[in-house]
Specification:
By secondary structure, the protein is mainly beta. It has one domain. The protein is built from no helices and four strands. It has a two-stranded antiparallel ribbon with strand order 1-3. Strands 2-4 form a two-stranded antiparallel ribbon. The protein is globular, with a radius of gyration of 15 Å. The relative contact order is 0.25.
């Protein structure tokens, strides 16, 4: 019988702030622009795992330039 190493998630960073309507659920709490392979995403506007434009949502894909992207509010 072989022993398996315990699961260690690999943090992945996004290039910029994701859409303000993107939500995620993760088994591990990471920073606001970090996620790992256990993270699940959904869109608040579409209430689904696909955005209003019909494309799947993900922190790496819900970035500036996407037709339904809405920038997060700026903090003062």
């Amino acid at each position: 019988m072989t022993k398996h190493a315990p699961f260690q998630p690999n943090p992945i960073r996004t290039p910029g702030p994701p859409c303000r309507f993107l939500r995620m659920q993760s088994a591990f709490r990471l920073g606001p622009t970090e996620y790992d392979e256990t993270t699940r995403f959904w869109c608040v506007r579409a209430l689904d795992n696909c955005g209003p434009d019909g494309t799947a949502v993900h922190a790496a894909w819900c970035q500036a330039g996407r037709s339904c992207y809405s920038a997060p509010p700026t903090r003062v």
